[in-house]
Amino acid sequence: MNTIFRKTVLGIAGLAFTGGVFAGPIAAHADPGPVTGNLVAAVQADKPDSAKLIPHGVQGAQSKIDLNGEQVSNAKAIIAATKKAGLPERAAVVSIATSLQESKLENLGHLGDLNDHDSLGLFQQRPSSGWGSPEQITDPEYSTLAFLKGLKQVDGWQDMPLTDAAQTVQVSAYPDAYAQWEQQAADLVSQYWNS
Predict the structure, then answer these.
(1) Domains of the chain: which residue ranges?
(2) DSSP helix/strand/coil, 84
(3) Environment class of 195 (CB within 10 Å of its CB; exposed 0-12, middle 13-18, buried 19+)
(4) What is the pTM of this model?
(5) So which residues are the signal peptide here (predicted)?
(6) How many CB atoms lie within 10 A of CB 58?
(7) Cα distance between residue 80 and residue 91, in whole Å
(8) Residues β-bridged to residue 121
(9) Contact predicate 157/151, CB 8 Å
């Protein structure tokens, strides 16, 4: 084998190895079958662009909780409703972060004395404030679409820090609390947007 040909082959192999190492654990451990030149690009194209998910970077310390099956299903329902509303991934991040703050992604019914007024569902929306009936508010699709309807009415929500967009819709007593869930919300959207 001549030297130029061997260096070319080794150079291509080195690029292929480097691409696999930097593509992350999914590409490095997947059995892709026959290797093609577009493998890394195909793996990366499956996930939303992180610059779209967190355009301003996270604000402040981040919180994270372990999710059970019901909470993951609720996150997926929020993503599905966001797609149904024709909104981008960023709207799902804002919605999931809001739900993480309001209910930890649990579809809460009436909590008796622990209830904050008549707040219900994933977003702790109140029937008395016009969000819908208790049955509607405890339906994940309905409550998400109601939240997104409010979000769409916020001029420039796409360009706002998450906590400002969420607070404008929710009018919470703790307006800065939404920011702590931005990274986990973005991770969930990244993981489930295309599933």
Answers:
(1) 3-46, 56-192
(2) helix
(3) exposed
(4) 0.73
(5) 1-23
(6) 16
(7) 11
(8) 108
(9) yes
Residue 27: burial class (beta carbons within 10 Å; 0-12, 13-18, 19+) = middle
- Give the whole-angstrom CA distance, residue 65 versus residue 184: 8
For residue 163, how many C-alpha atoms fall within 13 Å in the half-sphere facing its CB? 18
Position 98 confidence tier, pLDDT thresholds 50, 70, 90: very high
Q: Position of tokens 């309807």?
A: 149
The DSSP line for 98-110 is HHHHHHTT--B--
Contact 23, 43 (CB under 8 A): yes
In tens, the pLDDT along 102-137 reads 999 999 875 555 555 678 999 999 888 899 999 999
48: its two tokens: 């939303």
Which tokens belong to 60? Answer: 């402040």
CATH architecture of 56-192: Orthogonal Bundle (1.10)
Distance CA 90, CA 42 (A): 22
